[in-house]
Amino acid sequence: MKLFTKATAIKALGAASASALLASGSAYASNTLTEAGTSVSNTFTLDYDVGAISQPTITNDNVTPPVGADVQGTPTLFTVDRKVDHAVTATNSVLSTPPGANATLTFELLNEGNDNQAYSFSIADLDNGANTFDASPVSIVYYIDTDDDLDFGDETGVTITTTTIGAAAGAAVVTGDVPKGVRVLLEVTGTVDAAIGDADTDDITIIAEARDPGAWIIEASATPAAVTTDSGGANTITGLAQNVLADDTGVAASEGATDGLHAATGVIAVASPDLNATKSVSAITETPVDCETDAVVADAKAIPGACIEYVITVTNTGATATASNLVIEDILPAEVTFVSATLDTTTATGFADDGAVLGAGPTLDAPTTPANRDCNGTTTCVVQLSDAVLAAGEDGLIRIRAEVR
Amino acid sequence: MIRHSILALSMLTCLSAPALAEGFTALQLVERAVVNVDDSGNRDVTFEAAEEVAPGDEVRYRLAYSNDGAEPAENVRLVMPVPAQLKLIEGSAQTPAADVTYSVDNGETFARRGNLTVSVDGIERPATAEEITHIRWTFSEAIAAGATGDLSYRGVLQ
To answer: In angstroms, rounded to a whole number, what is the distance separating the alpha carbons of residues A222 and A228?
Structure first.
């Protein structure tokens, strides 16, 4: 028996998805907190009679007292202090990526305080899991939603020079003032080395540290000072607002409550499809009636005129990643005549439609005309699968029947 | 500011006391609530000078009064505005000593809390705590000569 073989080309691309620049459509809660520095004033009026005779109104309203009033004291005043409060959230908390690519995690920071606030960012390396790696280098681009329209697309990004994982908080760039209730988008891009294995993970924790806003006087300095404790010194009821820390605990391993720091963790999870392909050939029957549907006859030989079957088996042995944009091409040898080609599987789904490719797949192109069924080993008898994906753990079969000349 | 107020008040008292034959005095204070929760989960609220106040904090306005005159003060009515930045804590103004009514129209009219309504597009609906602009306490009994006391309400700084 002679085996006819030809090269089988398989192309697969990992299921990498481009990360969206825009924020998710989370509900927008406007910040109605009283502005820091607001002076809250209050007064009273007290009326009474003595012996049924009305007495002058007692008030502390020394600006517009009632006529004939007995003004005692002055209005009570207090200054609304600066609530330093912000929260970081990971907006794509687990990002699947193939090895050898750049992966971009996105984070959002919200100024939940009642005044402008500046921030600096650092990255903590808090890897957690069985198989971890460190994406390197890592860079941060941030966009302040200055016009507060929840759209970062119209903002200009500022790139923070490549940041080392584990760099101390405060070492990085300080943002400009972020108004109260305004969000900041952070894109953290790490390069995943091509040698990183399937299912390895890299936990990237972004820590945002509150900094004095540029316009704030008390602690103004050349670079805005970190706000990590309540304002020291004597508190004052009136006068300039003072810092009152109110942030929650985000990632306990890197920060706590009311420390001017808040963090969130995003995970880069490597998912590489691992495709294996085999091709076999066997004789179905020496005396075909209808080669396309003939049953297997035991010990059939591939003599001239016999019906034979090629089976191309593609298996995705990766742990999680779907192999997408699959194109499998097979050209039959010149010694046969093409009869039919069908898709099959021994697992649940087999080849499936690739949503990223137009049309309903998978598409199996096979010869249709007598001329194309007449194999010459190069340009005819071309069988091609396209618009197909193969999920992890699945196999996909292409069965090709042909008759030996 | 409290110290300043006291100073101003004492100066006023010293200078103009003879003119105030009845000698009824009142002092308004603003304080911040400090809530401590112990290990058993018991809440203990104390009040201190409103030095460190940020949005979300609880603020108390307190009026300390003293009838330093020789005669009882009758028909005592006290009105305190609620600053726009404050949301009144419901019930915090209640006291057995006085009938408490509220205003949503800058002190023009007053009504008991349950009867307090606002009209929006011609439709009457119950007023919310945020809409209360003034609180009035009307004492049911005369305040005897030499008697002291205080009234207060609390709000949350928005």
So the answer is: 18
β-strands A82-84, A243-245: how paired? parallel
B117-120 and A243-245 as β-strands: parallel, antiparallel, unpaired? unpaired
Q: List residues bridging with A264 in a β-sheet.
A: A206
pLDDT > 60? residue A113: yes
From CA A127, how far away is CA A130, in angstroms rounded? 9
How many angstroms separate the Cα of A314 from the Cα of each of A11, A285, B150?
A: 11, 25, 86
CA distances from A294 to A337, A368, A375, A403 (A): 16, 20, 21, 12
- A188-217 pLDDT, tens digit each: 998 899 888 888 899 999 999 998 887 654
Interchain CB distance below 8 Å, B78 and A44: yes
The answer for A 86-125 residues in CB contact with B (under 8 A) is 114
- Interchain CB distance below 8 Å, A52 and B74: yes
Contact B1 A237 (CB under 8 A): yes
The per-residue pLDDT for A165 is 58
Q: Does any CB of chain B come closer than 8 Å to the CB of residue A287?
A: no
pTM (predicted TM-score): 0.70
Does the CB of A382 have a partner CB in chain B at under 8 Å? no
- Please give the Cα distance from A60 to A70 (Å, whole number): 8
Look at residue A171 and tell me whether its pLDDT is greater than 60: no
Are the Cβ atoms of B77 and A48 closer than 8 angstroms?
A: yes
